[in-house]
Design brief:
The complex is a heterodimer. By secondary structure, chain A is of the alpha/beta class. Chain A has one domain: 3-Layer(aba) Sandwich (Rossmann fold). Helices cover 41% and strands 12% of the residues of chain A. Chain A contains 10 helices and 7 strands. A 5-stranded parallel β-sheet of chain A has the order 1-2-3-7-6, with helices on both faces. In chain A, α3 crosses α9. Chain A is globular, with a radius of gyration of 18 Å. The relative contact order of chain A is 0.17. Chain B is globular, with a radius of gyration of 19 Å. The longest helix of chain B is centred in the N-terminal third of the chain and has 15 residues. In chain B, α3 packs parallel to α5. Chain B is of the alpha/beta class. In chain B, the strands form 3 sheets. Chain B has a 7-stranded mixed β-sheet with strand order 3-2-4-5-7-6-12, with helices on both faces. The chains are: A alpha/beta, B alpha/beta. Chains A and B meet through α5 and α6 of A and α3 and α5 of B.
């Protein structure tokens, strides 16, 4: 069971998430004009919680058989995964600037065999939950206690494959499978509720025999408590619906779908970093 | 004459030759693997019986996963198992897997280097009365184009068992092509099977044409060779059981021996085994080639025999192709 978060650690993790956002912005300014911004910023709190509190892992031994598996299904938000992994010590922070460049281990969409610590190759949407089901089934066959965490997005729930996996996880009662959906209501062409409405979303998963938890997605303490609740379930897979704010931490990016698939220009990055540094000072003074 | 060094079935040309579908070899291969390798798991998308995965499912229920009619999910679940120490076989009709779930397999199994074996059943027009929706005639093309992929097309149920077992010798993706209808048993348990090697099943001292055949179409090629022999026309017949990796050396040698080639497969001629051979020979040994297979058309309902005949893939059509290619020799 994941431990409670002591007050002093909450502040430490907030600073870590803020640093992650700054690194995301810096990294995306070095890709030569491609990459996704809103999703990585929105998921910084959850990634920080995973890599610095929740996961049973060892950055120096990424192949440990008993490690928890963290699968990123919506691979396009990988800048935040790479940043969190670098912060945790999987590879040097310096390497972040190679993202999307030739000969880099940091592929534009994550490739398992390119970088130790990635569990799957992803990018084409709707495939991560199925792979999570497979990894969880393997864990059950091998009588392992690891958790399989699958990060998905709301947009990719338009893929039928996701629902095929949801059915099977419910059938197999995979209670060591915990899905966390980045429910930020944006996708490339607009708001999810306009492109293809998903609501009532929680009821859909209830109907698929999942244990459902619905939380605001940018509060680390709330998220850790949701994971603790998920780990008490013994007869169903679990979904944590994390209502995140895309572009979180940068005022002109928040909740604007146009930031889904573009990186900031230099002047925009400067403005974003100034806002994030101000936030950093604020957290320090709390 | 039949190459008896390969210990082929001596009763091959008898009226009462034993016939079995190659899918039966998948079933027996899986049982062998189930008994000898605890890491082998099998997934089925609601076609367990007709793909012959049912015996494995009954004997090893904890290692069998029914995904329902959901081929994309089946492929990606297998990929998850395949990156976690398991050898995951997925079994369905080839039009659905690797057809419907092609990109899922590409990303999660092939590029991701997961230990997944794709068993594609009901290949070719030999599928018969179900019609073109269920006759997989593009599956070789869409799998052999993947980097580092292995593609095995066994010629009979005995070779199918060997191919199924051999697919577990590598830790990455393999496509295995099986068929529905009963076809003659060509090989025996003693016939060698080696991934990446072709074998000349019909040998001759002074061949005029080399016939490369894959899968159960090898029988029709051998039948054509026998009839041509009676007309004093000598050919070689080569079994291409591994379409990828291709046996470059063996194919070039066999083609050079006769200086003319006919390829035979129950598949679209575009992109299939014949194309693979043409790509190789164009680079190394340009010579005339005729292609037996579906010629820019879907087939239809009918008995396998009727379809093979109507779509120009029977022994008669192969013999005509042999004569055509001889006329093109310089």
């Amino acid at each position: 069971m994941v431990a409670d978060l002591p007050q002093e650690k909450i502040k430490e993790l907030k600073l870590k998430a803020n640093a992650a956002r700054q690194l995301v912005i810096e990294t995306l300014t070095q890709t030569g004009g491609s990459g996704h911004t809103a999703g990585p910023l929105g998921m910084a709190d959850i990634f920080t919680a995973f890599y610095f509190h929740i996961l049973n892992h060892d950055p120096k031994k990424p192949e440990l058989p008993d490690r928890d598996r963290l699968i990123l299904s919506n691979g396009h938000i990988c800048p935040i995964r790479y940043v969190s992994m670098a912060q945790a010590g999987y590879f040097p922070l310096e390497e972040l600037k190679t993202l999307r460049h030739l000969n880099s281990r940091l592929q534009g969409h994550p490739h398992r065999t390119a970088l130790p610590g990635l569990e799957t190759t992803s990018g084409p949407l709707g495939e991560g939950l199925s792979q999570g089901v497979g990894i969880a089934l393997a864990g059950r066959l091998d009588k392992k206690d690891y958790y399989t965490y699958v990060l998905t997005s709301d947009g990719e729930h338009e893929e039928g494959n996701t629902w095929e996996a949801a059915m099977m996880a419910g059938k197999e009662k995979l209670h060591h499978l915990i899905q966390v959906i980045d429910y930020n209501n944006i996708q490339i062409d607009g708001k999810v509720e306009d492109v293809m409405p998903l609501e009532p979303f929680r009821a859909k998963y209830d109907a698929f025999n999942w244990h459902t938890i619905d939380i605001p997605g940018n509060d680390i303490e709330t998220f850790v408590k949701a994971i603790q609740e998920a780990q008490t379930v013994t007869d169903k897979p679990i979904i944590i619906i994390a209502r995140t704010i895309p572009g979180k931490g940068v005022s002109f990016m928040e909740n604007d779908y146009r930031w889904h698939g573009v990186p900031p220009k230099p002047e925009e990055a400067e403005k974003a970093l100034a806002e994030l540094k101000a936030e950093e000072e604020k957290i320090k003074s709390e | 004459m039949l190459n008896q060094n390969l210990k082929l079935n001596p009763k091959l040309f008898d009226e009462d030759v034993t016939q079995e579908p190659t899918r039966a070899g998948f079933g027996t291969g899986l049982m062998h693997l189930g008994e000898t390798n605890p890491n082998v798991v099998v997934l089925s998308a609601d076609l367990t019986g007709s793909t012959q995965a049912n015996k494995f499912a009954e004997k090893f229920p904890e290692r069998f996963f029914q995904t329902g009619v959901a081929e994309q999910n089946m492929a990606a679940v297998a990929a998850g198992l395949g990156v976690t120490g398991k050898i995951a076989f997925i079994s369905s009709y080839a039009t659905f897997s690797p057809g419907k779930n092609w990109e899922t397999i590409r990303t999660t199994a092939v590029y991701n280097e997961a230990n997944v074996k794709i068993a594609g059943h009901h290949s070719g027009v030999m599928t018969g009365p179900d019609g073109a929706t269920h006759q997989a005639t593009e599956d070789i093309a869409i799998t052999r184009c993947w980097p580092n992929m292995h593609v095995y097309v066994p010629c009979d149920a005995i070779e199918a068992k060997k191919a199924t077992i051999a697919s577990t010798n590598i830790n990455t993706a393999v496509y295995l092509r099986y068929s529905r209808d009963k076809t003659p048993i060509i090989t025996t348990d003693e016939t060698p099977f080696k991934v990446g090697k072709v074998q000349t099943f019909w040998v001759n001292e002074n061949p005029k044409v080399t016939i490369f055949a894959t899968g159960y179409m090898l029988y029709y090629a051998l039948l054509a060779a026998k009839e041509l022999e009676e007309e004093k026309l000598q050919v070689l017949v080569v079994n291409v059981a591994t379409v990828k990796p291709l046996d470059n050396e063996g194919i070039i040698q066999a083609a050079r021996d006769s200086q003319a080639v006919v390829t035979v497969e129950d598949h679209q001629v575009e992109g299939g085994m014949g194309s693979a051979i043409a790509e190789l020979l164009a680079k190394t040994t340009p010579l005339p080639i005729e292609f037996i297979g579906l010629q820019n058309t879907f087939a239809e309902s009918g008995t396998p025999k009727e379809l093979i005949e109507k779509y120009g893939m029977d022994a008669k059509a192969i013999k005509e192709a042999v004569k055509r290619v001889i006329r093109r020799k310089s």
